[in-house]
Amino acid sequence: MDVETIQVPKSGPAILDNNNVLTRARHAIALAAGATAGVLQLESFYGFGVFVAAMALASVALFALTAGSNKQVLYTGVLASLPGFVLSWVLVYSLSA
């Protein structure tokens, strides 16, 4: 039997749990990226560039882990992680100044 022909059943609770895992992973990545931008004393668009780069790398990694089967992993939780990024960026920036 060919692997591509196997259909995996999708259930609502499993999809919600997977989306929660993706969102938590993006939150953790955003906090680490914010701390990195703060330690490097980045300001303005350079700091947000760190966020964009971190989210792009996370999207590529998650897309590769899912073997390209679900394009929703590219954007799930990106905007929800932005406030955490800004919070950690400003906190670490002010503490390291």
Describe this structure in words.
The protein is mainly α and 97 residues long. It has one domain. Helix content is 65%, strand content 0%. It has three helices and no strands. It has helices at 12-39, 45-65, 82-95. The relative contact order is 0.19. The model has no long low-confidence stretch (mean pLDDT 87). InterPro entries: Emc6, EMC6-like. Belongs to the EMC6 family. The chain crosses the membrane at residues 45-66, 73-95. It holds the Pfam family EMC6. Its main location: endoplasmic reticulum.
Task: Characterize this entry briefly.
One of its GO terms (cellular component) is EMC complex. The protein is mainly alpha-helical and 97 residues long. It has one domain.
Report helical residue fraction. Answer: 55-70%
**Cα distance spanning the termini:** 61 Å
Number of helical elements: 3
How large, in whole angstroms, is the Cα Rg? Answer: 16 Å
Shape: elongated
Taking the sheet with the most strands, its summary is: none
Derived structural class: mainly alpha
Unreliable spans are none
- Average pLDDT metric: 87
Strand percentage? under 5%
The total domain count is 1
Order of helical and strand elements: HHH
The total strand number stands at 0
List strands and helices in order, with pairings.
Elements: H1 12-39, H2 45-65, H3 82-95
Helix pairs in contact: 1-2, 1-3
Family: Belongs to the EMC6 family.
GO biological process, one term: autophagosome assembly
Keywords: Endoplasmic reticulum, Membrane, Transmembrane, Transmembrane helix
